[in-house]
Amino acid sequence: MLKINQNSCTNCAACYDVCPYYVMGKEKNTGRVFIRYPDQCRSCGHCIAVCPAGAVIHDSLSLTDFEKASKVEIPPTVLKEHILQRRSVRIYQDWPVPDQALNDLIETGACAGTGANTQSVRFIVITDKSVLMKLEEIVFDICWKAGLKFFGGKGPLFRLLSGKFGPEITSWFRSYHDIFRHRRENNEIAGSVFRNAPAVILAHDLARNPLGAINCAVAMRNMELLAPAMGLGTCWTGYMISAAANKSKTINTFLGLDKTRRIHGGIMVGYPKFRYSLKIPRGMNMQTIRI
Q1: Which of 7, 81, 227, 276 could form a disulfide with 232 if both were Cys (CB 3.0 to 4.6 A apart)?
Q2: Structural domains of the chain ordered from first start
Q3: Beta strand 24-26 with 33-35: parallel, antiparallel or unpaired?
Q4: Rounded distance between C-alpha atoms, residue 201 and residue 223, angstroms
Q5: Is 123 left (phi over 0), alpha (psi -120 to 50) or beta?
Q6: What's the confidence (pLDDT) of residue 287?
């Protein structure tokens, strides 16, 4: 239950202004804020965090659960440069990632916003090499067989894929299938999925949540931005996500998840073996429509 302590309330109406779910009401004559639609509350905590008098009371969100927010000032030029210098890292030192570093990454991911404040994203951290090797074999097999289905010839499935995605995107898919084919021919499957990374973090959400993929992607991005500041490199596990989308039951069974969950995100984590001295030229990506 959500309520306002009218004895403490200063009528600043900050809680009314920041509430994204239209829970609060405001009396026209006095400007006094009151709880109008309590059932619409999604427990985001904005009203509690913004109230200068501690007058907003929520049964499931105690004021003692909130840490005092400090004012963090990062020069925009520094933050921009940090983002522009980030690269996907696929070659790692053979060093373990400390548990504290992994916990810090998980914390930033868990604090990411979620649609309707579902907070339904959960994480799996894998550092056991034998588990990663077995999962890699499963993912490789799923992706290879899926590629054979569409690229084994010029049959109806290939035409269906080409018609749905167009020639450019289809050529990208084919290039990945060719990578798998060449690795099979050269017996170089090991390291093809997780790149021998010492750690992999996976994110999963409710399978029925239409925003699950976005929620997981936002959480992963938080981790990817923090990692370089810790000396770590990351890379999105695209093959893993594709396999989870193609054969979710197989992947879930191996990871111990039931059918109510779906893997939507994942990153490899480790200390980079190489340092890049040049930033990526991304001028074409800045093509923008301004309205």
Answers
A1: 227
A2: 2-65 (3.30.70.20), 71-291 (3.40.109.10)
A3: antiparallel
A4: 10
A5: beta
A6: 79
